From TrEMBL:
Annotated GO MF terms: DNA-binding transcription factor activity; sequence-specific DNA binding
Superkingdom of the source species: Bacteria
GO terms, biological process: DNA-templated transcription
Family, per entry: Belongs to the LysR transcriptional regulatory family.
Pfam assignment, any one: LysR_substrate
Keywords, comma-separated and alphabetical: Activator, DNA-binding, Transcription, Transcription regulation
Record carries keyword rRNA-binding: no
Protein name according to UniProt: LysR family transcriptional regulator
InterPro entries: LysR-type_TF_proteobact-type, LysR_HTH_N, LysR_subst-bd, WH-like_DNA-bd_sf, WH_DNA-bd_sf
Chain ranges of the HTH lysR-type domain: 6-63
Keyword flag DNA-binding: yes
Length: 291
Protein backbone atom coordinates (compact mmCIF):
# COMPACT_ATOMS: atom_id res chain seq x y z
CA UNK A 1 0.00 0.00 0.00
CA UNK A 2 1.38 3.42 -0.99
CA UNK A 3 0.71 5.90 1.79
CA UNK A 4 0.19 9.60 1.17
CA UNK A 5 2.26 12.10 3.13
CA UNK A 6 1.41 11.68 6.80
CA UNK A 7 1.85 14.87 8.86
CA UNK A 8 2.55 13.00 12.08
CA UNK A 9 3.22 16.05 14.26
CA UNK A 10 -0.03 17.65 13.14
CA UNK A 11 -1.99 14.43 13.59
CA UNK A 12 -0.60 13.95 17.09
CA UNK A 13 -1.38 17.57 18.01
CA UNK A 14 -4.95 17.17 16.76
CA UNK A 15 -5.50 13.84 18.55
CA UNK A 16 -4.32 15.21 21.90
CA UNK A 17 -6.35 18.41 21.47
CA UNK A 18 -9.45 16.47 20.50
CA UNK A 19 -9.21 14.22 23.54
CA UNK A 20 -8.81 17.15 25.92
CA UNK A 21 -10.84 19.65 23.85
CA UNK A 22 -8.10 22.07 24.79
CA UNK A 23 -4.92 23.25 23.07
CA UNK A 24 -3.44 24.12 26.46
CA UNK A 25 -3.87 20.64 27.97
CA UNK A 26 -2.68 19.03 24.74
CA UNK A 27 0.45 21.18 24.92
CA UNK A 28 1.08 20.01 28.50
CA UNK A 29 0.78 16.39 27.42
CA UNK A 30 3.09 16.84 24.43
CA UNK A 31 5.60 19.06 26.25
CA UNK A 32 5.32 21.89 23.70
CA UNK A 33 3.76 25.34 23.76
CA UNK A 34 0.08 26.01 23.28
CA UNK A 35 0.96 28.06 20.20
CA UNK A 36 2.85 25.10 18.69
CA UNK A 37 -0.16 22.83 19.12
CA UNK A 38 -2.52 25.39 17.64
CA UNK A 39 -0.15 25.90 14.71
CA UNK A 40 0.07 22.16 13.95
CA UNK A 41 -3.71 21.76 14.07
CA UNK A 42 -4.11 24.70 11.71
CA UNK A 43 -1.63 23.10 9.29
CA UNK A 44 -3.67 19.88 9.34
CA UNK A 45 -6.91 21.76 8.68
CA UNK A 46 -5.24 23.56 5.77
CA UNK A 47 -3.98 20.26 4.37
CA UNK A 48 -7.39 18.59 4.68
CA UNK A 49 -9.21 21.76 3.58
CA UNK A 50 -11.83 21.32 6.34
CA UNK A 51 -12.13 22.70 9.88
CA UNK A 52 -11.62 20.09 12.61
CA UNK A 53 -12.60 22.28 15.58
CA UNK A 54 -15.05 25.02 16.35
CA UNK A 55 -13.14 27.55 18.44
CA UNK A 56 -15.39 28.61 21.31
CA UNK A 57 -14.79 31.23 24.00
CA UNK A 58 -14.46 28.51 26.65
CA UNK A 59 -12.76 25.78 24.67
CA UNK A 60 -13.01 23.62 21.59
CA UNK A 61 -15.73 21.53 19.96
CA UNK A 62 -15.14 18.94 17.26
CA UNK A 63 -16.67 19.42 13.85
CA UNK A 64 -18.21 16.48 12.05
CA UNK A 65 -14.90 15.91 10.25
CA UNK A 66 -13.02 16.05 13.55
CA UNK A 67 -15.36 13.50 15.11
CA UNK A 68 -14.70 11.20 12.17
CA UNK A 69 -10.93 11.51 12.45
CA UNK A 70 -10.48 11.25 16.23
CA UNK A 71 -11.34 7.57 16.90
CA UNK A 72 -9.15 6.40 14.03
CA UNK A 73 -6.15 8.37 15.27
CA UNK A 74 -6.68 7.44 18.91
CA UNK A 75 -6.83 3.73 18.12
CA UNK A 76 -3.77 3.97 15.88
CA UNK A 77 -1.67 5.90 18.39
CA UNK A 78 -2.71 3.53 21.19
CA UNK A 79 -1.66 0.54 19.12
CA UNK A 80 1.66 2.13 18.19
CA UNK A 81 2.37 3.02 21.84
CA UNK A 82 1.52 -0.51 22.98
CA UNK A 83 3.77 -2.10 20.36
CA UNK A 84 6.67 0.25 21.10
CA UNK A 85 6.35 -0.54 24.80
CA UNK A 86 6.53 -4.27 24.13
CA UNK A 87 9.49 -3.96 21.77
CA UNK A 88 11.33 -1.41 23.88
CA UNK A 89 11.05 -3.46 27.04
CA UNK A 90 11.84 -6.71 25.20
CA UNK A 91 8.54 -7.99 26.50
CA UNK A 92 7.24 -9.41 23.23
CA UNK A 93 6.77 -13.12 23.79
CA UNK A 94 5.68 -15.87 21.47
CA UNK A 95 3.94 -18.79 23.17
CA UNK A 96 5.35 -22.26 22.50
CA UNK A 97 3.49 -25.32 23.84
CA UNK A 98 5.64 -28.43 24.17
CA UNK A 99 4.56 -31.78 25.56
CA UNK A 100 7.47 -33.85 26.89
CA UNK A 101 7.62 -37.42 28.07
CA UNK A 102 8.45 -37.12 31.76
CA UNK A 103 11.72 -39.08 31.64
CA UNK A 104 13.22 -36.79 28.99
CA UNK A 105 11.89 -33.69 30.74
CA UNK A 106 13.51 -34.48 34.08
CA UNK A 107 16.59 -36.31 32.85
CA UNK A 108 17.66 -34.03 30.00
CA UNK A 109 15.53 -30.97 29.30
CA UNK A 110 15.01 -29.30 32.68
CA UNK A 111 18.73 -28.96 33.54
CA UNK A 112 19.24 -27.09 30.25
CA UNK A 113 16.18 -24.84 30.19
CA UNK A 114 18.12 -21.88 31.60
CA UNK A 115 20.31 -21.85 28.51
CA UNK A 116 17.28 -21.83 26.23
CA UNK A 117 15.68 -18.95 28.14
CA UNK A 118 18.87 -16.90 27.95
CA UNK A 119 19.16 -17.41 24.20
CA UNK A 120 15.48 -16.95 23.37
CA UNK A 121 13.89 -14.62 25.94
CA UNK A 122 11.00 -13.82 23.60
CA UNK A 123 9.70 -17.42 23.71
CA UNK A 124 7.06 -18.08 26.36
CA UNK A 125 7.76 -21.79 26.76
CA UNK A 126 4.92 -23.83 28.26
CA UNK A 127 5.78 -27.42 29.13
CA UNK A 128 3.42 -30.25 29.92
CA UNK A 129 4.65 -33.74 30.75
CA UNK A 130 3.05 -36.97 29.61
CA UNK A 131 3.67 -40.69 29.90
CA UNK A 132 4.47 -41.10 26.19
CA UNK A 133 0.87 -40.75 25.07
CA UNK A 134 0.45 -37.30 23.55
CA UNK A 135 -2.50 -35.95 21.56
CA UNK A 136 -0.76 -33.11 19.72
CA UNK A 137 -3.89 -31.74 18.07
CA UNK A 138 -6.23 -32.28 21.01
CA UNK A 139 -3.85 -30.69 23.52
CA UNK A 140 -2.91 -27.80 21.23
CA UNK A 141 0.79 -28.70 21.25
CA UNK A 142 3.34 -27.23 18.89
CA UNK A 143 5.77 -30.08 19.60
CA UNK A 144 5.68 -33.36 21.47
CA UNK A 145 8.86 -35.10 22.60
CA UNK A 146 8.27 -38.80 23.05
CA UNK A 147 9.90 -42.21 23.09
CA UNK A 148 9.49 -44.71 20.27
CA UNK A 149 10.56 -45.59 16.76
CA UNK A 150 9.46 -42.36 15.09
CA UNK A 151 6.37 -43.87 13.46
CA UNK A 152 3.37 -41.81 14.56
CA UNK A 153 0.54 -41.31 12.09
CA UNK A 154 0.20 -37.79 10.73
CA UNK A 155 3.32 -36.47 12.44
CA UNK A 156 6.73 -35.29 11.32
CA UNK A 157 9.36 -36.86 13.57
CA UNK A 158 12.99 -35.85 14.06
CA UNK A 159 15.35 -38.11 16.05
CA UNK A 160 16.87 -36.58 19.17
CA UNK A 161 18.62 -39.15 21.37
CA UNK A 162 18.95 -42.93 21.49
CA UNK A 163 17.70 -44.49 24.71
CA UNK A 164 19.20 -47.89 25.34
CA UNK A 165 17.71 -49.70 28.32
CA UNK A 166 19.83 -51.26 31.03
CA UNK A 167 19.31 -52.76 34.47
CA UNK A 168 19.66 -50.32 37.37
CA UNK A 169 19.26 -50.97 41.08
CA UNK A 170 20.60 -49.96 44.48
CA UNK A 171 24.06 -51.28 45.50
CA UNK A 172 22.59 -53.69 48.08
CA UNK A 173 20.61 -55.52 45.38
CA UNK A 174 23.49 -55.34 42.89
CA UNK A 175 25.69 -57.15 45.41
CA UNK A 176 23.65 -60.33 44.94
CA UNK A 177 23.50 -60.14 41.14
CA UNK A 178 26.48 -62.13 39.94
CA UNK A 179 25.11 -63.04 36.51
CA UNK A 180 22.23 -61.72 34.40
CA UNK A 181 20.23 -64.83 35.33
CA UNK A 182 20.16 -63.63 38.92
CA UNK A 183 17.68 -60.90 38.02
CA UNK A 184 15.09 -63.66 37.63
CA UNK A 185 14.96 -63.87 41.38
CA UNK A 186 14.28 -60.16 41.84
CA UNK A 187 11.18 -58.04 41.44
CA UNK A 188 11.16 -56.47 37.99
CA UNK A 189 10.25 -52.83 37.71
CA UNK A 190 9.05 -52.32 34.16
CA UNK A 191 6.98 -50.19 31.81
CA UNK A 192 3.72 -51.24 30.20
CA UNK A 193 5.81 -52.77 27.39
CA UNK A 194 6.24 -56.38 28.46
CA UNK A 195 8.80 -57.11 25.74
CA UNK A 196 11.51 -54.85 27.18
CA UNK A 197 12.67 -57.32 29.84
CA UNK A 198 12.37 -60.19 27.38
CA UNK A 199 14.65 -58.42 24.90
CA UNK A 200 17.16 -57.50 27.59
CA UNK A 201 17.40 -61.05 28.91
CA UNK A 202 17.86 -62.40 25.39
CA UNK A 203 20.61 -59.82 24.79
CA UNK A 204 22.23 -60.98 28.03
CA UNK A 205 22.44 -64.51 26.64
CA UNK A 206 19.60 -66.19 28.48
CA UNK A 207 17.50 -68.78 26.65
CA UNK A 208 14.30 -67.68 24.96
CA UNK A 209 12.17 -69.48 27.54
CA UNK A 210 12.83 -68.55 31.12
CA UNK A 211 10.72 -68.38 34.26
CA UNK A 212 8.93 -65.06 34.80
CA UNK A 213 9.44 -63.22 38.05
CA UNK A 214 7.36 -60.83 40.09
CA UNK A 215 6.94 -57.44 38.44
CA UNK A 216 5.49 -54.00 39.05
CA UNK A 217 4.30 -52.02 36.02
CA UNK A 218 4.79 -48.24 35.84
CA UNK A 219 3.52 -45.67 33.35
CA UNK A 220 6.57 -43.49 33.99
CA UNK A 221 10.27 -44.29 34.09
CA UNK A 222 10.66 -41.54 36.68
CA UNK A 223 8.37 -43.38 39.10
CA UNK A 224 10.03 -46.67 38.18
CA UNK A 225 13.52 -45.41 39.00
CA UNK A 226 12.26 -43.81 42.20
CA UNK A 227 10.95 -47.25 43.19
CA UNK A 228 14.36 -48.70 42.41
CA UNK A 229 15.96 -46.06 44.65
CA UNK A 230 13.64 -47.23 47.43
CA UNK A 231 14.87 -50.81 46.97
CA UNK A 232 11.64 -52.13 45.47
CA UNK A 233 13.42 -54.13 42.76
CA UNK A 234 15.50 -53.89 39.60
CA UNK A 235 14.52 -51.32 36.99
CA UNK A 236 15.00 -51.48 33.26
CA UNK A 237 15.40 -47.86 32.18
CA UNK A 238 17.59 -45.57 30.03
CA UNK A 239 20.75 -44.71 32.05
CA UNK A 240 21.27 -41.62 29.87
CA UNK A 241 18.26 -40.00 31.56
CA UNK A 242 19.40 -40.69 35.13
CA UNK A 243 23.00 -39.43 35.38
CA UNK A 244 22.58 -37.86 38.84
CA UNK A 245 21.42 -41.09 40.43
CA UNK A 246 24.20 -43.10 38.78
CA UNK A 247 26.98 -40.57 39.33
CA UNK A 248 26.11 -40.27 43.01
CA UNK A 249 26.20 -44.04 43.44
CA UNK A 250 22.60 -44.19 44.65
CA UNK A 251 21.95 -46.52 41.71
CA UNK A 252 24.37 -48.80 39.88
CA UNK A 253 24.36 -50.75 36.63
CA UNK A 254 25.35 -54.29 37.59
CA UNK A 255 25.72 -55.40 33.95
CA UNK A 256 26.96 -53.83 30.73
CA UNK A 257 24.15 -55.37 28.69
CA UNK A 258 21.84 -52.85 27.09
CA UNK A 259 19.04 -53.14 24.56
CA UNK A 260 17.69 -50.47 22.23
CA UNK A 261 13.97 -50.53 21.47
CA UNK A 262 13.58 -46.90 20.45
CA UNK A 263 14.73 -43.38 21.12
CA UNK A 264 13.49 -39.88 21.84
CA UNK A 265 11.91 -37.92 18.99
CA UNK A 266 10.75 -34.37 18.41
CA UNK A 267 7.36 -34.57 16.75
CA UNK A 268 4.78 -32.18 15.37
CA UNK A 269 1.72 -32.40 13.16
CA UNK A 270 2.66 -32.58 9.50
CA UNK A 271 0.01 -29.94 8.80
CA UNK A 272 1.41 -27.54 11.41
CA UNK A 273 3.52 -24.76 9.85
CA UNK A 274 6.64 -24.03 11.86
CA UNK A 275 6.58 -20.72 13.70
CA UNK A 276 9.64 -18.67 14.59
CA UNK A 277 9.45 -19.93 18.19
CA UNK A 278 9.17 -23.54 17.00
CA UNK A 279 12.22 -23.13 14.75
CA UNK A 280 14.18 -21.55 17.60
CA UNK A 281 13.35 -24.41 19.98
CA UNK A 282 14.13 -27.10 17.42
CA UNK A 283 17.48 -25.55 16.47
CA UNK A 284 18.45 -25.05 20.12
CA UNK A 285 17.45 -28.61 21.00
CA UNK A 286 19.49 -30.20 18.20
CA UNK A 287 22.51 -27.98 18.90
CA UNK A 288 22.45 -28.84 22.60
CA UNK A 289 22.12 -32.55 21.91
CA UNK A 290 25.01 -32.54 19.43
CA UNK A 291 27.28 -30.34 21.55
Amino acid sequence: MVRPYLPLKALRAFEASARHLSFTRAAEELYVTQAAVSHQVKLLETLLKVPLFKRLPRGLMLTQEGELLLPVLKSSFDQIAHTLERVGESSYREVLNVGVVGTFAVGWLLPRLGDFQRQYPYVDLRLSTHNNRADIAGEGLDFAIRFGTGAWHGTAAQPLLPASLSVMCIPDIAARLNTPADVLGETWLRSYRADEWTEWLLAAGLPRSFPMTNSIVFDSSIAMVEAALQGAGVALAPPLMFPRQLNSGALVQPFDTAVSLGGYWLTRLQTRPETHAMASFREWLLTAINA
